[in-house]
Amino acid sequence: MACQGTTGEGIQTGNDHTFDEMARSGGLVLAEFWGAWCADCDTVGAAVNAVAAEFSGHLRVVRLQVERNPETTRRHGIVTLPTLLFFKDGTVVGRHIGGMALPALRARIAELLG
User: Fold this and answer.
1) Strands 28-34 and 59-65, sheet pairing
2) How confident is the model over 45-56, as pLDDT tens digits?
3) What is the DSSP string of 30-91?
4) Residue 97 and residue 60: Cα distance in Å, rounded?
5) What are the beta bridge partners of residue 96?
6) pLDDT(6) > 60
7) Per-domain boundaries in the chain
8) Would you give the DSSP letter of residue 4?
9) In terms of CATH architecture, what is 11-113?
10) How far apart are CA 92 and CA 85, in angstroms?
């Protein structure tokens, strides 16, 4: 799963100690919960990479590997992967569970950015 371990423009790797601060960072934050064993996570990860670059300056992306961060995973009720959570000022304003194509992800982000 090559894309999941990478961070690029506008993408940060979160963990149990940093996630809450990252989610409260103001503006729109997309949190991608993924697992090394999750085949769909690679596809969603590629779409997340694309929107991170496309919406740079308007969107912050945080990746969180669930196996390494059980506290945050449990607190947010993540039981199926991949899961995308959308935050504004630390509040969850959207959730998507399972695969998501790039056009649908673009549309959701555009909607949330208003």
Assistant:
1) parallel
2) 999 999 999 999
3) EEEEE-TT-HHHHHHHHHHHHHHHHTTTTEEEEEEEGGG-HHHHHHTT--SSSEEEEEETTE
4) 19
5) 84
6) no
7) 11-113
8) T
9) 3-Layer(aba) Sandwich (3.40)
10) 7
